[in-house]
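User: For my dataset I need records formatted as: sequence, then structure tokens, nothing else. Please produce one.
Assistant:
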Amino acid sequence: MPVETSSACASDPCAPGTKCQATESGGYTCGPVEPHGCASQPCRHGALCVPQGPGPSDFRCYCVPGFQGPHCELDIDECASRPCRHGATCRNLADRYECHCPLGYAGVTCEAEVDECASAPCLHGGSCLDGVGSYRCVCTPGYGGASCQLDLDECQSQPCAHGGVCHDLVNGFRCDCADTGYEGARCEQEVLECASAPCAHNASCLEGLGSFRCLCWPGACARTRSFSEHVS
């Protein structure tokens, strides 16, 4: 190990810019003087300091990506060019940026609109209309709800008249008019019991609700009692 002694290096035998170091054998060696510029570690953010001479300012900093300046002290603002689109928020990082996209957009710079219909959210054959950050379903008849998930109750409006019982169907309903005296799709028409001419012997038929009555000629009903009975 070289040892510096006053006797070996007293005459300053080394050339300018070099340093004298005495050896154990009594001689000396001349080596380069470590520049003072990099000794103070002037380069920041992990930059490489390269000596350029013996003076305290004789150095050069080689910056890592994302920094600049004589001492690599300046963080380059990657958001300065406004790379994020559609109102996204840009976050400056070391040698890169990060975009926080608003609802409905995606991608490195939020350049791509998200297709909310890609997941087929509309049920029961509904059509999907894509919007920005949303979608709208156009439902097939008989269904409703945001995703057409609801089977609409067509009986809710009470379409069956005169006490008819409503049975809900897909995109429709069925009225049960039994024992009401009415008929038709909505039990809206009174059943005409006399239409089948139930009274014999020229008796007159009188309509009733769910029944009829025969008015017989004198003596006719005596021959056939059923003509004067109420039929339900």
